[in-house]
Every structure is written in structure tokens, then in C-alpha cells.
Specification:
The protein is α/β, with parallel strands linked by helices. The chain has nine helices and eleven strands. 32% of the residues lie in helices and 13% in strands. Helix 3 packs across helix 4 and helix 6 crosses helix 7. The radius of gyration is 19 Å and the shape is globular. Bound molecules: zinc ion (ZN). Zinc ion binds next to loops.
């Protein structure tokens, strides 16, 4: 059961093939990342996010169309689960990236997108966002759309979780991303493992949060090498002719595949659609506070060690 779907303002189109964002992040080769949990919590640094720069690649994939989404009532996207809103035109794709932010791989994805002056939607994990807020800030600074993908990547159809725990996974995820960015993300949500418990679909509707499944899964997390990510994605895409593509900026093979995959999309005539929310998500204060408490995050801007501890004699 779903709340009434929101509206897509697909007519609110602007062409920005030459005005796309540009990340200053250095290109790095990714490494295999561990599962979505253990990493040291880092305090957010005070350094400002890198500034955007105009696209300098005349042959870039670019951005074909920008659509603005009214998330009232929690519309669902991605034909694997939601079939009401068919807004993509032939040869249009939406690039989506889950499970970040993560060192090396996320910056590498950002570099590849910037080289092609194109963009995607990122669905970060809340905990990861508290580990690496500076990487998530780079995603935002490059102009990409950012949603959320729960607090700890719990599968919300797990019957061991109470309804309150499921809501907490959703809400703390958004609150963590907000904490990392210093600003509210878009009300865009993706369920871990694309498992959609009906009561949480209804809940997201009441929270005016859009849900994203996908039209095609790259299965990049199963790929044995970067070429397999490209082959699986293009085979499915050529069959469908368009679609929301699910990938993971968390994964090394995806990061390594992306430059060639983006060139292939361009060569085959595909155009990237940028999806933006009409308004940011409204996080709930209770969960904003829980993020601070659970992650033992600083509530004021952190000071560098050198300003706190000074050696006066040795
Ligand atoms: Zn995931």
C-alpha cells in the first residue's frame, strides 16, 4: 500500500552540458573495501569543500536533462519495484551510486564523473558518512545529488527488527548524512538490498521521501573485474534502451570501470539525466541527536591537535 505518488516536474528541464560540476579530487586507484561497518570515526574538518569549475572537456558525456522531483507522498522510481512513473525518454540514463562514502573508490568515482562533466545520485550509508564526512562533502561540492541508504545498511525486511528500529535506520541515515554535509540532503532513499517492507514504504510516503529502486542492476558487487561491470551494464541497458542504473561507489571495480563505461555511454548515444529534489529532507531532531550521541561526534567544530596540545618541553 502506498501513499499517492508525487509529481515529477520533468518539464523543468535545463540543458547544462557545459556547466556541469567539476571535482578537484585527485584520481586514485581503488582498493577492496571491507564491509560496511568498521572504520574509525573521524571528526569533521573545517576545510571548505572544493569549488566547482566549468567543464573543460568538449567531448564530455555531460548532462542531457535536469528534472526536479516533488517528493510529496513518497514517489517510487525504478521499474524493478515501482512502475508508476515512467519519465525517462529513450536513451536516457540516471547514474546512481550506493554504500559510500569510502576512501579511494568514492574520490575515484568523483574524478571520473568530473572528467565527463556528468553527475549521479549518491546513496551513502549513515555510518560511513560519519567516518568520512570530508569525502561526502566532496560529493556535494561536485554538484551531485545526495540521498540516504540507512544508518547501518540493515536489511529492513529482517523480522528481528521492530518497526521503531526500522524507522531509526531510515531516520538516522538521513541525520548522519546531514551531520556530515552540514546541510540536509535530498529526500531520496534507497532500501538496502532493494528489500522493500510495505510498512516502511508507507512510512516514507508519510515523510515525503522518494524511494529509488532501479531499472537495471550493474551487479558490480559480484563483478570479477572492471570489464564485467561494463559488459553487464551495457547488455542490460541496450535491452531496455534507458534506465536508472544501480552501481556502488564503495567498490573498487566500479571505480575502475567508470571511465570506460561513461565513454561507452557517450559513444552509444546515451544521455545522463540529473534528478534533483524540489526541497531538502526534513530530518527529525530526535535522530539528529541520536547520531551525535551514538557516534560520539563533536557538537562543535573540532580543533586540530596542535591547537589543543602543545609540547612546551621535551
Ligand atoms: Zn547498499
Amino acid at each position: 500500500m502506498r501513499i499517492a505518488a508525487g509529481l515529477i516536474f520533468a518539464g523543468a528541464v535545463s540543458l547544462c552540458a557545459t556547466g556541469a560540476a567539476w571535482s578537484q579530487t585527485p584520481a586514485t586507484k581503488g582498493t577492496t573495501a571491507p564491509a560496511a561497518t568498521a572504520a574509525p570515526a573521524l571528526p569533521p574538518a573545517a576545510t571548505p569543500a572544493p569549488a566547482k569549475a566549468p567543464c573543460s572537456n568538449p567531448d564530455a558525456l555531460g548532462i542531457g536533462r535536469v528534472v526536479e522531483i516533488d517528493t510529496t507522498g513518497g514517489p517510487g522510481f525504478g521499474f524493478e519495484h515501482f512502475k508508476q512513473l515512467d519519465f525517462l525518454r529513450e536513451k536516457e540514463v540516471v547514474l546512481t551510486f550506493d554504500d559510500g562514502p569510502w576512501p579511494l573508490n568514492t574520490p575515484s568515482v568523483l574524478k571520473s564523473l568530473a572528467d565527463e562533466c556528468t553527475t549521479g545520485i549518491f546513496f551513502p550509508i549513515g555510518k560511513h558518512s560519519t567516518y568520512y564526512p570530508e569525502i561526502l562533502k566532496q560529493v556535494a561540492a561536485a554538484g551531485h545529488t545526495i540521498g540516504s541508504h540507512t544508518w547501518s545498511h540493515a536489511t529492513l525486511t529482517n523480522k528481528k527488527l521492530t518497526e521503531d528500529q526500522r524507522k531509526e535506520e531510515i531516520e538516522k541515515g538521513f541525520s548522519a548524512v546531514k551531520w556530515a554535509l552540514g546541510a540536509s540532503p535530498s529526500p531520496f532513499f534507497r532500501f538496502p538490498a532493494l528489500q522493500h517492507p510495505p510498512e516502511m514504504v508507507t512510512y516514507l510516503g508519510t515523510r515525503n521521501i522518494a524511494m529509488f529502486s532501479c531499472d537495471l542492476d550493474s551487479f558490480d558487487f559480484k563483478a570479477r573485474n572492471p570489464q564485467q561491470v561494463i559488459d553487464v551494464t551495457m547488455k542490460k541497458l541496450d535491452k531496455l534502451g534507458k534506465g536508472i542504473i544501480l552501481m556502488h561507489d564503495f567498490h573498487k571495480h566500479t571505480a575502475e570501470a567508470l571511465p570506460a563505461l561513461l565513454r561507452k555511454l557517450k559513444a552509444d548515444g546515451y544521455k545522463v539525466v540529473q534528478m534533483k529534489a524540489k526541497a531538502p529532507v526534513q530530518t527529525l531532531p530526535q535522530y539528529d541527536e541520536e547520531v551525535l550521541k551514538d557516534a560520539k561526534l563533536p557538537t562543535v567544530s573540532s580543533r586540530p591537535v596542535s591547537s589543543v596540545v602543545q609540547t612546551i618541553s621535551e
